[in-house]
Amino acid sequence: MKALRLLEWKHEPELVDVADPTPGPGQVVIPVGGAGACHSDLHLMHDFEPGLAPWGPPFTLGHENAGWVAAVGTGVDGLAEGNPVAVYGPWGCGRCRHCMLGMENYCQRPDLQRAAGGGLGFDGGMAPYMLVPEARWLVPLGDLDPVVAAPLTDAGLTPYHAVKRSLPKLVPGATAVAIGVGGLGHLGVQFLSALSPATVIAVDQRQEALDLAAKLGAHHTVRSGPSAADEITELTGGGRAEVVLDFVGVDATLQLAAAVTRPLGDLTIVGIGGGSLPIGFFNIGYEVSVATTYWGSRPELVEVLDLAEAGRLHIEASTYPLHLAVEAYRALQAGTVEGRAVITPNG
User: Fold this and answer.
1) Helix (H) or strand (E) holding 298
2) pTM of the full predicted structure?
């Protein structure tokens, strides 16, 4: 079969021939319905170098995956051929305290795994078939289309976790700001609206992204730029926001986030744009909690999929066949993809 593989750091991936996978004990093979193309994949291609991660190429890309069960190895129970499933993305050791709680995104013993997940050292979903080494990483989809569900495993799960951790501060009368309402942020706006009574302000440099955010639940939209902080402060009556989520993570957006987070608020950095945020006594509000997040837990993925199956989420997605996957990444880098790019290896 053909697979889109990263053969070495600092190179575009290539479509190459690989053998069809066969499941061993405890393993599952799925035909891939959808595999999301993520901005973090661009970092894998262009910013990683030997020694930066304890794993490396060659491997098949695609860490946002969903499909159907095709074959199971010995010892796998509860999964039958044809069952639609989503693949939980961060693969931990399964034995540490965090993994036992379903928080494999924060595995305490990553050294026990030879890679971080499918599409992250292990072979991912940008091929007709994907081998899932542990059945626990599969979550039933119910009636959801795997093409729709695939981006929810990261672009949905990541903002969901970021929003959920700040729910105690999103009380009636509170304000939440989402900076960058593209692939992750347009789902973040929906989670803020679905899970809390807070007023939601969306910030982006693209008017089409702001228009979409308004349709998906944002109460106010602000064009990013020199006046953005003043506009947000005015919208909050001068008090700024209790929760600010930066889905971009570059210097400019982090500076904006710090400027509009009120004392006692949460500033969560979700985007991996490579920026930094200087922290000092006088350059951020008193008792502002600054955090980074990485993905979410397996139980949270179940909750995201339940919200989607209930019709509470809209996934803005552009689909590409496998032979155009490299073009999808080029469009992603150019900023011309609408919503989330999803590769459909099996049509």
Assistant:
1) helix 298-309
2) 0.95
